[in-house]
């Protein structure tokens, strides 16, 4: 019992497929009766692992693991081949689509160029045709030799005559229309028409306006709707006497003539003012040019005098310079520097160089200390990782050893039970 409990605790601590099988066998032995145990002892047991345990969830032997790995490698190769084939087909499809698109673009460009060329040829033909047509028309005009006579100007009289004839014709048409209308639609026989004033309206011929129909009790216009409720009718109307129109036109002609005369006078005055202004401008320009010329002459005379004065001054200065004796031809004297100034500068530079070297050394030492600290930290981390890995391996080995010992004890127990 102590061995069984130890074995069960170990199996619970590290559970593997073989431990699960052994635990199941132990539980099966515990559940068996004495008769079942005797029958099991008489049977010939094989040490071969059952097929369901061997080929259940994962390979249990090296050969099975090798076969499984080989199978996985073959599947991986097949997948790679399929992926390579799919990529090649995809590349070929893309290449074909690109080729088709490029060919389509080239065809479109060619068609566009042809259309542009045809349109240009059409425009050229149209332009040439228009030019030829214009040249033919001009040639026909030149060959016909028809001269246009502008004198005398009788177009205005012809227009007035045509207008008078047209107005007379329209008056005759209006008179005929009014006569026909009076014959077709005579005035109504109503007492209201007789009572109205004759000063307003058209005087119709005939004296039957005041008579009343003898057989009618009510006037015929009273049997219909009132005039203000009926729809208005359009009648052709025109004045028979258009003297006022003629007077208005004559007044307009006179007004236009006066405006044109005033405009011509105004333009004549502007032209005269322009001529006067041009003469004044010419006179002013002449005076200004003469004044500028005089000023230019004065300026030239003044410059000539200045040049002569400068020339005389240079000659006098040169004569004075050559007349005096020269005692020294060397450079001008300068102030001497202190002899220890250069030494002071060199000492300052040496001190600055020493300070720079000390700063450079301190920065280098600080950088080295920082790098050394980083290296120490990395080494400590690496040592800690190695210790953890070593402890993990020891723990794993201990677990495996304990498991193996428990399995050995279980096997010995099974052998004892079998014997």
From TrEMBL:
The lineage of its organism: Eukaryota, Sar, Alveolata, Dinophyceae, Gonyaulacales. Keywords: Coiled coil. Residues 311-323 have a biased composition (Basic and acidic residues). This is Uncharacterized protein. Residues 246-273 form a coiled coil. It comes from the Eukaryota. Residues 311-338 are annotated as: Disordered.
């Amino acid at each position: 019992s102590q061995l069984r409990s130890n074995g069960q605790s170990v199996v619970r601590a590290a559970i593997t497929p073989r431990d699960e099988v052994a635990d199941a066998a132990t539980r099966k032995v515990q559940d068996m009766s004495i008769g079942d145990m005797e029958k099991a002892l008489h049977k010939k047991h094989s040490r071969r692992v059952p097929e369901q345990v061997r080929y259940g969830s994962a390979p249990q032997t090296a050969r099975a693991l090798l076969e499984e790995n080989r199978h996985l490698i073959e599947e991986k190769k097949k997948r790679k081949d399929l992926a390579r084939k799919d990529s090649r087909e995809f590349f070929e499809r893309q290449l074909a689509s690109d080729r088709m698109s490029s060919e389509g673009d080239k065809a479109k460009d060619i068609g566009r160029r042809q259309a542009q060329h045809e349109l240009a040829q059409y425009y050229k033909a149209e332009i040439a045709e228009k030019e030829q047509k214009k040249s033919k028309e001009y040639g026909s005009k030149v060959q016909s030799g028809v001269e246009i006579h502008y004198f005398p100007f009788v177009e205005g009289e012809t227009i007035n005559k045509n207008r008078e004839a047209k107005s007379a014709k329209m008056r005759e048409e209006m008179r005929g229309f009014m006569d026909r209308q009076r014959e077709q639609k005579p005035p109504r026989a109503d007492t209201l028409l007789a009572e109205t004033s004759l000063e307003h309206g058209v005087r119709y011929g005939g004296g039957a306006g005041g008579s009343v129909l003898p057989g009618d009790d009510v006037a015929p216009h009273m049997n219909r709707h009132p005039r203000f409720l009926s729809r208005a009718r359009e009648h052709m109307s025109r004045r028979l006497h258009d003297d006022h129109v003629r007077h208005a036109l004559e007044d307009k002609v006179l007004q236009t003539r006066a405006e044109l005369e005033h405009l011509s006078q105004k333009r004549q005055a502007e032209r005269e003012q322009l001529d006067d202004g041009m003469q004044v401008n010419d006179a002013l320009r002449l005076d200004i040019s003469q004044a500028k010329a005089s000023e230019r002459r004065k300026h030239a005379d003044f410059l000539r005098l200045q040049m002569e004065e400068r020339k005389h001054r240079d000659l006098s200065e040169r004569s004075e310079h050559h007349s005096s004796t020269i005692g020294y031809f060397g450079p001008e004297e300068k102030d001497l520097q202190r002899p220890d100034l250069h030494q002071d500068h060199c000492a300052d530079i040496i001190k600055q160089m020493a300070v720079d070297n000390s700063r450079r050394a301190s920065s280098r030492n600080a950088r080295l200390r920082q790098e050394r600290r980083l290296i120490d930290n990395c080494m400590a981390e690496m040592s800690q990782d190695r210790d953890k890995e070593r402890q993990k391996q020891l723990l794993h080995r201990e677990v495996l050893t304990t498991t193996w010992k428990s399995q050995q004890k279980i096997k010995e127990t099974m052998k004892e039970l079998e014997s």
